[in-house]
Amino acid sequence: MIFVDTSCWIAASTRKDAHHHEALRLVRGTDALLVTTNHVRGETWTFLSRRHGHSPALAFLDSTSRALRLRIEFVSRELEDEAWRWLRDRDEREYSFVDATSFAVMRSLRIREALAFDSDCGQQHRATGGGTLARVDPTGQAAGRREAHERPRQRNVTEYPRCDRDWSYSRMCPTTSRPE
């Protein structure tokens, strides 16, 4: 299983995004079951709807509803509680609630790989790099990366780097632009 983060969905859904083709290649080019959450799906819908309009958001919703290799995991009350506990212990970086629930779901399902492009927001964190699968320990500690076609190097890795982002929808990663 591979977790798909909001940043990957946005890149895959936005033709002018710098990572659009790479995101599509990664999402379509794996035989693994892709997993995302209802929170990630909602966050992606909101971003696409506010930045690009109703049609791109609806296209995203329809494509994720039809996808055969995609499992949408609904965040339970227990996982939300775990996410809040996790956030309380982390004041060195800003993580969103959606990040924390994603990590909780990844821990519960023992998912160690994620598709994400957050590192391109220019933060000083170790980048996952475009076109890679981030090796993760969903505790949020730094891990490493591998090309999508490579075998995993190790099992116990420790960080999933994220870029701090303002989800007020007025400022987003500069690589995300309006679709054609």
Concise synopsis of the structure shown:
With 180 residues, the chain is of the alpha/beta class. The chain has 6 helices and 6 strands; from the N terminus they run βααβααβααβββ. It is 39% helix and 12% strand.
Question: Care to describe what's here?
Answer:
- The chain is α/β, with parallel strands linked by helices and 180 residues long.
- The chain has a single domain, classed as 5'-nuclease (Rossmann fold, 3-Layer(aba) Sandwich), CATH 3.40.50.
- The protein is built from six helices and six strands; from the N terminus they run βααβααβααβββ.
- The protein has a six-stranded mixed beta sheet with strand order 3-2-1-4-5-6, with helices on both faces.
- α1 crosses α2.
Mean pLDDT: 71
Share of residues in strands: 5-15%
Number of strands: 6
Strand order of the largest sheet: 3-2-1-4-5-6
Shape: globular
CATH H level, superfamily name: 5'-nuclease
Amount of helix = 25-40%
CATH architectural label? 3-Layer(aba) Sandwich
Order of helices and strands: EHHEHHEHHEEE
CATH topology: Rossmann fold
Total domain count: 1
Number of helices: 6
CATH classification class: Alpha Beta
Category from helices, strands and their pairing: alpha/beta
Low-confidence stretches: 119-138, 140-180
Question: Alpha-carbon distance between the termini?
Answer: 32 Å
Our Rg estimate from Cα atoms comes to: 15 Å
Largest sheet properties: 6 strands, mixed
Properties at a glance:
single chain; six-stranded mixed beta sheet; alpha/beta; 6 strands; 180 residues; disordered C terminus
